[in-house]
Amino acid sequence: MNIGIHDLDVATTHYVLKLDSMAEALGVDPAKYQLGLGQDEFSVPAPDEDVVTMGAHAAKRLLDRNDPSKIRMVLFATETGIDQSKAAGVFVHGLLGLPTAVRTVEFKQACYSGTAALQTAVNHVARYPEDQVLVITSDVARYAVDSGGEPTQGAGAVAMLVAADPNLVVIEPQSGVFTADVNDFWRPNDSSTPFVEGKLSLDAYLDATIGAWDDLAARRDLNVSDIHRFMHHQPFTKMARKAHTKLAEHVGVELGSELIEESMTYNRRIGNSYTASLYFGLAAQLHGNEDLAGKRLGLFSYGSGSVAEFFTAVVQPGYTEHLHPETVAESLDSREEITFEQYRDLHNAYVGESENYETATVTDAPFRFTGVTDRVRQYEAR
Ligand code: CAA
Protein backbone atom coordinates (compact mmCIF):
# COMPACT_ATOMS: atom_id res chain seq x y z
CA MET A 1 0.00 0.00 0.00
CA ASN A 2 1.22 3.50 -0.84
CA ILE A 3 1.24 5.77 2.22
CA GLY A 4 2.69 9.23 2.59
CA ILE A 5 2.12 12.97 2.70
CA HIS A 6 -1.28 13.82 1.28
CA ASP A 7 -1.16 17.55 1.94
CA LEU A 8 1.22 19.99 3.60
CA ASP A 9 1.13 23.61 4.75
CA VAL A 10 3.16 26.00 6.86
CA ALA A 11 3.03 28.99 9.19
CA THR A 12 5.62 31.28 10.70
CA THR A 13 5.77 34.39 12.89
CA HIS A 14 4.63 38.01 12.74
CA TYR A 15 8.15 39.50 12.78
CA VAL A 16 11.35 39.05 10.78
CA LEU A 17 14.92 40.23 11.43
CA LYS A 18 17.32 40.67 8.52
CA LEU A 19 20.73 39.25 9.35
CA ASP A 20 22.37 42.28 7.74
CA SER A 21 20.90 44.31 10.65
CA MET A 22 22.40 41.89 13.15
CA ALA A 23 25.75 41.95 11.35
CA GLU A 24 25.85 45.75 11.41
CA ALA A 25 24.86 45.96 15.08
CA LEU A 26 27.40 43.33 16.17
CA GLY A 27 30.21 44.54 13.87
CA VAL A 28 30.29 41.23 11.97
CA ASP A 29 30.99 40.92 8.22
CA PRO A 30 27.50 40.27 6.68
CA ALA A 31 29.13 37.67 4.41
CA LYS A 32 29.69 35.46 7.46
CA TYR A 33 25.92 35.07 7.81
CA GLN A 34 25.00 35.07 4.10
CA LEU A 35 27.79 32.81 2.86
CA GLY A 36 29.39 31.31 5.98
CA LEU A 37 26.06 30.19 7.49
CA GLY A 38 23.89 30.52 4.37
CA GLN A 39 21.19 32.58 6.07
CA ASP A 40 19.50 35.88 5.07
CA GLU A 41 16.95 36.53 7.82
CA PHE A 42 14.99 34.79 10.57
CA SER A 43 11.42 34.72 11.89
CA VAL A 44 10.87 36.23 15.34
CA PRO A 45 7.73 35.44 17.37
CA ALA A 46 5.56 38.23 18.75
CA PRO A 47 4.67 37.86 22.46
CA ASP A 48 1.29 36.37 21.47
CA GLU A 49 2.81 33.64 19.26
CA ASP A 50 4.31 30.27 20.19
CA VAL A 51 4.58 26.70 18.91
CA VAL A 52 0.85 26.15 19.47
CA THR A 53 -0.33 29.21 17.52
CA MET A 54 2.03 28.47 14.61
CA GLY A 55 1.19 24.75 14.59
CA ALA A 56 -2.55 25.43 14.76
CA HIS A 57 -2.28 27.97 11.93
CA ALA A 58 -0.40 25.55 9.65
CA ALA A 59 -2.87 22.75 10.49
CA LYS A 60 -5.91 25.00 9.94
CA ARG A 61 -4.72 25.71 6.43
CA LEU A 62 -4.72 21.93 5.81
CA LEU A 63 -8.05 21.26 7.43
CA ASP A 64 -9.77 24.06 5.52
CA ARG A 65 -9.32 21.93 2.38
CA ASN A 66 -9.48 18.38 3.80
CA ASP A 67 -12.04 16.37 5.79
CA PRO A 68 -11.19 16.66 9.53
CA SER A 69 -13.48 13.73 10.39
CA LYS A 70 -10.92 11.32 8.87
CA ILE A 71 -8.24 12.39 11.38
CA ARG A 72 -7.69 9.72 14.01
CA MET A 73 -4.42 10.93 15.51
CA VAL A 74 -2.61 14.28 16.07
CA LEU A 75 1.16 14.00 16.54
CA PHE A 76 2.83 17.24 17.60
CA ALA A 77 6.63 17.24 17.31
CA THR A 78 8.62 19.97 19.05
CA GLU A 79 11.73 20.52 21.14
CA THR A 80 10.39 23.81 22.48
CA GLY A 81 7.22 22.51 24.10
CA ILE A 82 5.19 24.79 26.35
CA ASP A 83 4.36 22.32 29.12
CA GLN A 84 6.17 19.42 30.74
CA SER A 85 3.01 17.34 30.95
CA LYS A 86 0.27 18.42 28.56
CA ALA A 87 0.99 17.89 24.86
CA ALA A 88 0.97 21.06 22.75
CA GLY A 89 -1.14 19.10 20.29
CA VAL A 90 -4.02 19.01 22.80
CA PHE A 91 -4.22 22.82 22.69
CA VAL A 92 -4.18 22.61 18.87
CA HIS A 93 -6.86 19.91 18.92
CA GLY A 94 -9.08 22.27 20.93
CA LEU A 95 -8.35 25.34 18.80
CA LEU A 96 -9.17 23.42 15.63
CA GLY A 97 -12.34 21.90 17.07
CA LEU A 98 -11.33 18.34 16.20
CA PRO A 99 -13.57 15.42 17.29
CA THR A 100 -12.89 13.86 20.71
CA ALA A 101 -12.26 10.43 19.11
CA VAL A 102 -8.66 11.36 18.32
CA ARG A 103 -5.36 10.22 19.88
CA THR A 104 -3.09 13.22 20.60
CA VAL A 105 0.51 13.07 21.77
CA GLU A 106 3.77 15.10 21.72
CA PHE A 107 7.05 13.78 20.32
CA LYS A 108 10.49 14.95 21.45
CA GLN A 109 14.03 14.22 20.33
CA ALA A 110 15.48 17.58 19.33
CA CYS A 111 15.00 18.41 15.63
CA TYR A 112 14.52 14.74 14.70
CA SER A 113 11.14 14.12 16.35
CA GLY A 114 9.09 15.37 13.38
CA THR A 115 10.39 12.42 11.42
CA ALA A 116 9.55 10.01 14.25
CA ALA A 117 6.02 11.44 14.17
CA LEU A 118 5.83 11.11 10.40
CA GLN A 119 6.96 7.47 10.45
CA THR A 120 4.55 6.69 13.30
CA ALA A 121 1.77 8.20 11.21
CA VAL A 122 2.74 6.07 8.21
CA ASN A 123 2.74 2.94 10.39
CA HIS A 124 -0.70 3.82 11.77
CA VAL A 125 -2.17 4.23 8.28
CA ALA A 126 -0.57 0.94 7.20
CA ARG A 127 -2.71 -0.74 9.84
CA TYR A 128 -5.82 1.44 9.49
CA PRO A 129 -5.89 2.59 5.84
CA GLU A 130 -9.10 4.62 6.18
CA ASP A 131 -7.56 6.82 8.89
CA GLN A 132 -5.59 10.01 8.36
CA VAL A 133 -2.99 11.38 10.78
CA LEU A 134 -2.24 15.06 11.35
CA VAL A 135 1.50 15.56 11.96
CA ILE A 136 2.55 19.00 13.20
CA THR A 137 6.18 20.09 13.49
CA SER A 138 6.58 23.43 15.26
CA ASP A 139 9.49 25.13 17.01
CA VAL A 140 10.97 28.42 18.16
CA ALA A 141 14.77 28.25 17.91
CA ARG A 142 15.86 30.69 20.61
CA TYR A 143 19.53 30.94 21.60
CA ALA A 144 21.25 33.10 24.22
CA VAL A 145 22.17 36.61 23.05
CA ASP A 146 25.77 36.98 21.89
CA SER A 147 26.10 33.20 21.56
CA GLY A 148 27.33 31.52 18.36
CA GLY A 149 23.81 30.28 17.71
CA GLU A 150 22.16 33.74 17.85
CA PRO A 151 22.25 34.30 14.05
CA THR A 152 20.82 30.78 13.53
CA GLN A 153 17.55 31.43 15.36
CA GLY A 154 14.17 31.19 13.68
CA ALA A 155 10.64 29.86 14.07
CA GLY A 156 8.04 28.06 12.03
CA ALA A 157 5.63 25.17 11.71
CA VAL A 158 4.86 22.63 9.01
CA ALA A 159 1.68 20.56 9.21
CA MET A 160 1.30 17.39 7.16
CA LEU A 161 -1.64 15.11 6.57
CA VAL A 162 -0.57 11.47 6.27
CA ALA A 163 -2.87 9.15 4.32
CA ALA A 164 -3.07 6.15 2.00
CA ASP A 165 -2.74 6.97 -1.73
CA PRO A 166 -1.36 10.42 -0.96
CA ASN A 167 -1.46 13.36 -3.35
CA LEU A 168 2.11 14.57 -2.75
CA VAL A 169 4.72 11.93 -1.84
CA VAL A 170 4.80 8.25 -0.91
CA ILE A 171 7.19 7.47 1.97
CA GLU A 172 9.10 4.34 0.95
CA PRO A 173 9.54 1.46 3.42
CA GLN A 174 12.93 0.87 5.06
CA SER A 175 14.82 3.90 6.28
CA GLY A 176 18.29 4.20 7.78
CA VAL A 177 18.40 5.09 11.48
CA PHE A 178 21.16 6.18 13.83
CA THR A 179 21.48 6.94 17.56
CA ALA A 180 24.59 8.02 19.49
CA ASP A 181 24.65 9.49 23.02
CA VAL A 182 26.39 12.85 22.43
CA ASN A 183 26.20 16.04 24.50
CA ASP A 184 26.42 18.46 21.58
CA PHE A 185 23.24 20.43 22.21
CA TRP A 186 20.81 20.20 25.12
CA ARG A 187 18.33 22.32 27.06
CA PRO A 188 17.85 21.51 30.75
CA ASN A 189 14.37 21.97 32.23
CA ASP A 190 15.35 25.23 33.96
CA SER A 191 16.77 26.95 30.89
CA SER A 192 14.86 28.76 28.11
CA THR A 193 17.88 28.57 25.79
CA PRO A 194 20.00 25.56 24.83
CA PHE A 195 23.60 24.84 25.72
CA VAL A 196 25.64 24.16 22.58
CA GLU A 197 29.06 22.70 21.87
CA GLY A 198 29.22 24.25 18.40
CA LYS A 199 32.10 22.30 16.85
CA LEU A 200 30.95 19.02 18.41
CA SER A 201 27.43 19.62 17.08
CA LEU A 202 28.74 19.88 13.51
CA ASP A 203 30.76 16.68 13.88
CA ALA A 204 27.87 14.83 15.53
CA TYR A 205 25.56 15.88 12.67
CA LEU A 206 28.03 14.64 10.04
CA ASP A 207 28.68 11.35 11.87
CA ALA A 208 24.92 10.81 11.97
CA THR A 209 24.60 11.55 8.24
CA ILE A 210 27.00 8.74 7.43
CA GLY A 211 25.64 6.39 10.10
CA ALA A 212 22.05 6.78 8.87
CA TRP A 213 23.07 6.50 5.21
CA ASP A 214 25.07 3.32 5.84
CA ASP A 215 22.12 1.75 7.65
CA LEU A 216 19.80 2.67 4.77
CA ALA A 217 22.21 1.27 2.17
CA ALA A 218 22.62 -1.95 4.20
CA ARG A 219 18.88 -2.51 4.37
CA ARG A 220 17.96 -1.59 0.81
CA ASP A 221 19.40 -2.00 -2.64
CA LEU A 222 19.82 1.76 -3.05
CA ASN A 223 22.57 3.97 -4.46
CA VAL A 224 22.88 7.74 -4.20
CA SER A 225 22.38 7.82 -7.97
CA ASP A 226 18.84 6.44 -7.41
CA ILE A 227 17.99 9.67 -5.58
CA HIS A 228 17.00 12.66 -7.70
CA ARG A 229 17.09 15.43 -5.07
CA PHE A 230 18.33 15.53 -1.45
CA MET A 231 16.97 17.44 1.53
CA HIS A 232 19.14 17.56 4.65
CA HIS A 233 18.15 19.05 8.03
CA GLN A 234 19.02 22.75 7.98
CA PRO A 235 20.00 24.37 11.31
CA PHE A 236 21.49 26.89 8.86
CA THR A 237 21.59 26.08 5.17
CA LYS A 238 25.39 25.79 4.98
CA MET A 239 25.06 22.71 7.22
CA ALA A 240 23.11 20.94 4.46
CA ARG A 241 25.97 21.69 2.07
CA LYS A 242 28.44 20.19 4.54
CA ALA A 243 26.28 17.05 4.89
CA HIS A 244 26.00 16.72 1.13
CA THR A 245 29.75 17.05 0.63
CA LYS A 246 30.41 14.54 3.41
CA LEU A 247 27.97 12.04 1.90
CA ALA A 248 29.56 12.41 -1.54
CA GLU A 249 33.05 11.81 -0.09
CA HIS A 250 31.78 8.81 1.84
CA VAL A 251 30.14 7.06 -1.11
CA GLY A 252 32.84 8.18 -3.55
CA VAL A 253 30.37 9.68 -6.01
CA GLU A 254 30.22 13.30 -7.11
CA LEU A 255 26.95 14.83 -5.89
CA GLY A 256 26.45 18.28 -7.38
CA SER A 257 25.19 21.08 -5.17
CA GLU A 258 22.23 21.54 -7.56
CA LEU A 259 20.78 18.39 -5.94
CA ILE A 260 20.07 20.34 -2.72
CA GLU A 261 19.82 23.97 -3.91
CA GLU A 262 16.03 24.30 -4.17
CA SER A 263 15.46 22.80 -0.71
CA MET A 264 17.17 25.75 0.98
CA THR A 265 15.14 28.71 -0.32
CA TYR A 266 12.60 28.86 2.53
CA ASN A 267 15.03 28.04 5.33
CA ARG A 268 17.35 30.89 4.31
CA ARG A 269 14.46 33.21 5.23
CA ILE A 270 12.89 31.42 8.21
CA GLY A 271 16.06 30.45 10.06
CA ASN A 272 16.19 27.29 12.12
CA SER A 273 12.77 25.84 12.88
CA TYR A 274 14.19 22.65 14.44
CA THR A 275 11.57 19.88 13.86
CA ALA A 276 9.98 21.81 10.97
CA SER A 277 13.24 22.62 9.19
CA LEU A 278 13.50 19.46 7.06
CA TYR A 279 9.85 19.80 6.05
CA PHE A 280 10.27 23.44 5.04
CA GLY A 281 13.06 21.98 2.86
CA LEU A 282 10.62 19.45 1.39
CA ALA A 283 8.03 22.18 0.77
CA ALA A 284 10.63 24.36 -0.97
CA GLN A 285 11.72 21.44 -3.15
CA LEU A 286 8.15 20.57 -4.17
CA HIS A 287 7.33 24.24 -4.82
CA GLY A 288 10.28 24.67 -7.20
CA ASN A 289 9.86 24.92 -10.98
CA GLU A 290 11.12 21.42 -11.76
CA ASP A 291 8.59 18.66 -12.53
CA LEU A 292 9.40 16.00 -9.94
CA ALA A 293 6.57 13.54 -10.69
CA GLY A 294 7.87 9.98 -10.31
CA LYS A 295 11.22 11.15 -8.89
CA ARG A 296 12.75 9.86 -5.66
CA LEU A 297 13.73 12.33 -2.92
CA GLY A 298 16.26 11.56 -0.17
CA LEU A 299 15.53 13.15 3.21
CA PHE A 300 18.02 13.31 6.07
CA SER A 301 16.57 14.16 9.48
CA TYR A 302 18.89 15.02 12.37
CA GLY A 303 18.29 15.82 16.02
CA SER A 304 21.12 16.69 18.38
CA GLY A 305 21.87 14.39 21.19
CA SER A 306 21.80 12.54 18.71
CA VAL A 307 19.23 10.66 16.60
CA ALA A 308 18.99 10.64 12.81
CA GLU A 309 17.13 9.01 9.95
CA PHE A 310 17.71 8.83 6.20
CA PHE A 311 14.56 7.97 4.24
CA THR A 312 13.19 8.30 0.75
CA ALA A 313 9.94 9.50 -0.76
CA VAL A 314 8.57 9.24 -4.29
CA VAL A 315 6.77 12.27 -5.74
CA GLN A 316 3.29 11.43 -7.03
CA PRO A 317 1.84 12.16 -10.49
CA GLY A 318 -0.32 15.29 -10.48
CA TYR A 319 1.25 16.54 -7.22
CA THR A 320 1.51 20.13 -8.47
CA GLU A 321 -2.29 20.44 -8.44
CA HIS A 322 -2.22 19.91 -4.67
CA LEU A 323 0.52 22.38 -3.73
CA HIS A 324 -0.09 25.74 -2.09
CA PRO A 325 3.09 27.78 -2.47
CA GLU A 326 1.01 30.95 -2.15
CA THR A 327 0.54 30.39 1.59
CA VAL A 328 4.30 30.12 2.10
CA ALA A 329 4.87 33.27 0.07
CA GLU A 330 2.18 35.04 2.05
CA SER A 331 3.62 33.84 5.38
CA LEU A 332 7.13 34.96 4.50
CA ASP A 333 6.33 38.21 2.70
CA SER A 334 3.78 39.52 5.19
CA ARG A 335 6.21 39.45 8.14
CA GLU A 336 6.94 42.84 9.69
CA GLU A 337 10.61 43.71 9.64
CA ILE A 338 12.05 44.78 13.00
CA THR A 339 15.33 46.44 13.93
CA PHE A 340 18.09 44.66 15.82
CA GLU A 341 17.19 46.68 18.93
CA GLN A 342 13.50 45.68 18.68
CA TYR A 343 14.53 42.04 18.25
CA ARG A 344 16.77 42.18 21.33
CA ASP A 345 13.98 43.83 23.36
CA LEU A 346 11.62 41.01 22.37
CA HIS A 347 14.26 38.39 23.18
CA ASN A 348 14.96 39.90 26.59
CA ALA A 349 11.25 40.30 27.40
CA TYR A 350 10.57 36.59 26.84
CA VAL A 351 8.50 35.15 29.71
CA GLY A 352 9.36 31.50 30.30
CA GLU A 353 7.62 31.17 33.66
CA SER A 354 4.00 30.39 34.33
CA GLU A 355 3.21 33.48 36.45
CA ASN A 356 0.00 35.25 35.47
CA TYR A 357 0.35 37.76 32.65
CA GLU A 358 -1.39 39.01 29.53
CA THR A 359 0.23 39.39 26.14
CA ALA A 360 -0.19 42.42 23.91
CA THR A 361 -2.22 41.81 20.74
CA VAL A 362 0.28 41.80 17.88
CA THR A 363 -0.28 38.88 15.54
CA ASP A 364 -3.11 38.98 13.02
CA ALA A 365 -2.96 35.17 12.61
CA PRO A 366 -6.06 33.03 13.34
CA PHE A 367 -4.75 31.95 16.77
CA ARG A 368 -3.20 33.94 19.62
CA PHE A 369 -1.48 33.06 22.87
CA THR A 370 -3.20 35.54 25.21
CA GLY A 371 -1.20 34.89 28.38
CA VAL A 372 -1.33 32.85 31.57
CA THR A 373 -4.21 32.73 34.08
CA ASP A 374 -3.93 30.65 37.27
CA ARG A 375 -0.81 29.11 35.69
CA VAL A 376 -2.82 27.88 32.68
CA ARG A 377 -1.78 29.00 29.18
CA GLN A 378 -4.65 30.71 27.39
CA TYR A 379 -5.29 30.77 23.65
CA GLU A 380 -7.79 32.57 21.47
CA ALA A 381 -9.21 31.41 18.12
CA ARG A 382 -10.43 34.30 15.98
N1 CAA B 1 32.79 35.59 4.90
C1 CAA B 1 32.38 34.36 4.53
N2 CAA B 1 32.37 33.29 5.38
C2 CAA B 1 32.77 33.50 6.64
C3 CAA B 1 33.20 34.76 7.09
C4 CAA B 1 33.21 35.85 6.17
N3 CAA B 1 33.59 37.05 6.53
N4 CAA B 1 33.53 34.65 8.41
C5 CAA B 1 33.33 33.36 8.76
N5 CAA B 1 32.86 32.66 7.69
C6 CAA B 1 32.48 31.26 7.63
C7 CAA B 1 33.42 30.33 8.37
O1 CAA B 1 34.54 29.98 7.56
C8 CAA B 1 32.52 29.15 8.66
O2 CAA B 1 32.34 28.39 7.51
P1 CAA B 1 32.86 26.86 7.47
O3 CAA B 1 32.22 26.15 8.65
O4 CAA B 1 32.35 26.32 6.18
O5 CAA B 1 34.34 26.94 7.60
C9 CAA B 1 31.15 29.82 8.93
O6 CAA B 1 31.25 31.13 8.37
C10 CAA B 1 30.80 29.93 10.38
O7 CAA B 1 31.89 30.56 11.00
P2 CAA B 1 32.35 30.11 12.46
O8 CAA B 1 32.52 28.62 12.50
O9 CAA B 1 33.49 30.97 12.86
O10 CAA B 1 31.03 30.51 13.26
P3 CAA B 1 30.75 30.49 14.79
O11 CAA B 1 31.85 29.89 15.56
O12 CAA B 1 30.33 31.86 15.16
O13 CAA B 1 29.47 29.53 14.93
C11 CAA B 1 28.17 27.56 14.78
C12 CAA B 1 29.07 28.52 14.03
C13 CAA B 1 28.97 26.72 15.76
C14 CAA B 1 27.44 26.66 13.79
C15 CAA B 1 27.10 28.39 15.57
O14 CAA B 1 26.28 29.09 14.66
C16 CAA B 1 26.22 27.55 16.46
O15 CAA B 1 26.57 27.20 17.58
N6 CAA B 1 25.00 27.21 16.00
C17 CAA B 1 24.05 26.41 16.75
C18 CAA B 1 24.37 24.93 16.71
C19 CAA B 1 24.11 24.32 15.35
O16 CAA B 1 23.28 24.78 14.60
N7 CAA B 1 24.82 23.23 15.03
C20 CAA B 1 24.58 22.52 13.80
C21 CAA B 1 24.58 21.04 14.01
S1 CAA B 1 23.41 20.61 15.30
C22 CAA B 1 21.87 20.54 14.52
O17 CAA B 1 21.79 20.51 13.32
C23 CAA B 1 20.63 20.54 15.34
C24 CAA B 1 20.04 21.90 15.35
O18 CAA B 1 19.15 22.20 14.56
C25 CAA B 1 20.56 22.87 16.32
UniProtKB/TrEMBL annotation:
<feature type="binding site">
    <location>
        <position position="143"/>
    </location>
    <ligand>
        <name>(3S)-3-hydroxy-3-methylglutaryl-CoA</name>
    </ligand>
</feature>
<feature type="active site" description="Acyl-thioester intermediate">
    <location>
        <position position="111"/>
    </location>
</feature>
<feature type="binding site">
    <location>
        <position position="148"/>
    </location>
    <ligand>
        <name>substrate</name>
    </ligand>
</feature>
<feature type="active site" description="Proton donor/acceptor">
    <location>
        <position position="233"/>
    </location>
</feature>
<keyword id="KW-0808">Transferase</keyword>
<dbReference type="InterPro" id="IPR013746">
    <property type="entry name" value="HMG_CoA_synt_C_dom"/>
</dbReference>
<dbReference type="GO" id="GO:0006084">
    <property type="term" value="P:acetyl-CoA metabolic process"/>
</dbReference>
<feature type="domain" description="Hydroxymethylglutaryl-coenzyme A synthase C-terminal">
    <location>
        <begin position="174"/>
        <end position="247"/>
    </location>
</feature>
<comment type="similarity">
    <text>Belongs to the thiolase-like superfamily. HMG-CoA synthase family.</text>
</comment>
<dbReference type="InterPro" id="IPR011554">
    <property type="entry name" value="HMG_CoA_synthase_prok"/>
</dbReference>
<dbReference type="Pfam" id="PF01154">
    <property type="entry name" value="HMG_CoA_synt_N"/>
</dbReference>
<feature type="binding site">
    <location>
        <position position="242"/>
    </location>
    <ligand>
        <name>(3S)-3-hydroxy-3-methylglutaryl-CoA</name>
    </ligand>
</feature>
<feature type="binding site">
    <location>
        <position position="29"/>
    </location>
    <ligand>
        <name>(3S)-3-hydroxy-3-methylglutaryl-CoA</name>
    </ligand>
</feature>
<feature type="domain" description="Hydroxymethylglutaryl-coenzyme A synthase N-terminal">
    <location>
        <begin position="2"/>
        <end position="165"/>
    </location>
</feature>
<keyword id="KW-0012">Acyltransferase</keyword>
<feature type="domain" description="Hydroxymethylglutaryl-coenzyme A synthase C-terminal">
    <location>
        <begin position="258"/>
        <end position="345"/>
    </location>
</feature>
<dbReference type="InterPro" id="IPR016039">
    <property type="entry name" value="Thiolase-like"/>
</dbReference>
<dbReference type="Pfam" id="PF08540">
    <property type="entry name" value="HMG_CoA_synt_C"/>
</dbReference>
<dbReference type="InterPro" id="IPR013528">
    <property type="entry name" value="HMG_CoA_synth_N"/>
</dbReference>
<dbReference type="GO" id="GO:0004421">
    <property type="term" value="F:hydroxymethylglutaryl-CoA synthase activity"/>
</dbReference>
<protein>
    <submittedName>
        <fullName>Hydroxymethylglutaryl-CoA synthase</fullName>
        <ecNumber>2.3.3.10</ecNumber>
    </submittedName>
</protein>
<feature type="binding site">
    <location>
        <position position="272"/>
    </location>
    <ligand>
        <name>(3S)-3-hydroxy-3-methylglutaryl-CoA</name>
    </ligand>
</feature>
<feature type="active site" description="Proton donor/acceptor">
    <location>
        <position position="79"/>
    </location>
</feature>
